[in-house]
């Protein structure tokens, strides 16, 4: 097997803003693994929150060039690299290649049934209540909206969003911006707005405050507090759901195993993404078949997508064609 990899920059339509900052382009790393005439592809998004950069991720991927040439497969990859973006790109490329070599769709490698279309959330970036209401009004026809919050002023933000989209289901993502002191106040505001899920309200190292908190009938979902199967058990009693992102799990192989483990522990599943192209979303569509909440709108936030990208019909996202992945 021959490995090639590179960093790519994909412009975002406008800007994407969360509690940790804003960006105008998505920096991704593409891995391609060739075997004869077949090429498997995988895409990852290095995440600064975990100390990853495009450059270090690319270097990590390329460090396995000789191992891949010697026959390293995706199962051996799980111990060759830790969970993270680099392993994700390689794992998804190896799944894609394995499917091509066996002339079968990727979902058959994991069992189950063929994937079908799912409703994905559409993200509203963090901003002033007025700016978020204006952005929400343009997306109010969508059945599921994901609202980025950021701490001070969140009660006003979520109220303004609800007024702008009275019929949409709302989920929110605080990206660790709340504190134990303002948790109850923000929960009450979300309950008043009819929010159904709150993603990572507290910092991962302070989420013990979630144990026993009055959830006001709103599910609490772990994101930064959960990575792979090893992090699941400690979340019981604090969270109701877990957000499975391939860049955190280190690829589809671990993500599918993690979905099994999470459901066995009683967690609902959310499948999420970073801002990236359809190539990063395509493998996650297999996890989406198990998920209560699907958040795979990354390509919708870009100024343009890859050729043969995923098909979106409003908020419906369809499984990939073979020309893209799998």
What does this structure look like?
30% of the residues lie in helices and 23% in strands. The mean pLDDT is 95. It has ten helices and 14 strands. It has an eight-stranded parallel sheet with strand order 5-6-7-8-9-10-11-12. The chain has two domains: 2-109, Enolase-like, N-terminal domain (Enolase-like, domain 1); 118-317, TIM Barrel (Alpha-Beta Barrel). 49% of the residues are buried. The chain is α/β, with parallel strands linked by helices and 326 residues long. Helix 5 runs parallel beside helix 6 (154-164). Strand 13 (312-313) and strand 14 form a beta hairpin.
Fold topology:
Blueprint: E1 2-18, E2 21-35, E3 38-44, H1 54-62, H2 65-69, H3 74-80, H4 85-102, E4 118-119, E5 122-124, H5 129-138, E6 144-148, H6 154-164, E7 169-173, H7 183-192, E8 197-199, E9 219-222, E10 241-244, H8 246-249, H9 252-264, E11 268-271, H10 278-288, E12 293-294, E13 312-313, E14 316-317
Parallel strand pairs: 5-6, 6-7, 7-8, 8-9, 9-10, 10-11, 11-12
Antiparallel strand pairs: 1-2, 2-3, 4-14, 13-14
Helix pairs in contact: 1-4, 5-6, 6-7, 9-10
Compact summary:
The protein has 326 residues and is an alpha/beta fold. It is 30% helix and 23% strand. Strand 11, helix 10 and strand 12 form a beta-alpha-beta unit.
């Amino acid at each position: 097997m021959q490995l090639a990899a590179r960093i790519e920059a994909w412009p975002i339509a406008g800007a994407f803003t969360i509690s940790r900052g804003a960006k105008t382009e998505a920096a991704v790393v593409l891995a391609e693994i060739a075997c004869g005439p077949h090429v498997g592809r995988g895409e990852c998004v290095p995440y600064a929150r975990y100390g990853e950069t495009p450059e270090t991720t690319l270097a990590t991927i390329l460090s396995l060039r000789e191992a891949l040439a010697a026959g390293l497969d995706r199962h051996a990859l799980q111990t060759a690299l830790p969970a993270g973006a680099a392993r994700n790109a390689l794992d998804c490329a190896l799944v894609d290649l394995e499917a091509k070599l066996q002339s079968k769709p990727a979902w058959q490698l994991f069992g189950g049934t063929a994937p079908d279309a799912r409703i994905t959330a559409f993200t509203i970036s963090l901003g002033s209540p007025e700016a978020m209401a204006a952005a929400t009004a343009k997306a109010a026809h969508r059945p599921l909206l994901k609202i980025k919050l950021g701490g001070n002023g969140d009660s006003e933000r979520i109220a303004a969003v609800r007024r702008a989209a009275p019929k949409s289901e709302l989920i929110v993502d605080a990206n660790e911006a709340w504190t134990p002191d303002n948790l109850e106040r923000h929960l009450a505001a979300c309950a008043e707005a009819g929010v159904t899920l709150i993603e990572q309200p507290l910092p991962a190292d302070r989420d013990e405050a979630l144990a026993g908190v009055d959830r006001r009938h709103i599910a609490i979902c772990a994101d930064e507090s959960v990575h792979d199967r090893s992090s699941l058990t400690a979340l019981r009693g604090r969270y109701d759901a877990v957000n499975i992102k391939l860049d955190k799990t280190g690829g589809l192989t671990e993500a599918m195993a993690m979905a099994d483990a999470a459901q066995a522990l009683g967690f609902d599943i959310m499948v999420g993404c970073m801002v990236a192209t359809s190539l990063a979303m395509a493998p996650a569509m297999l996890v989406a078949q198990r998920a209560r909440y699907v958040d795979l709108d990354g390509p919708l936030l870009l100024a343009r997508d890859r050729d043969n990208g995923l098909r979106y019909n409003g908020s419906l996202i369809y499984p990939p064609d073979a020309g893209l992945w799998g």
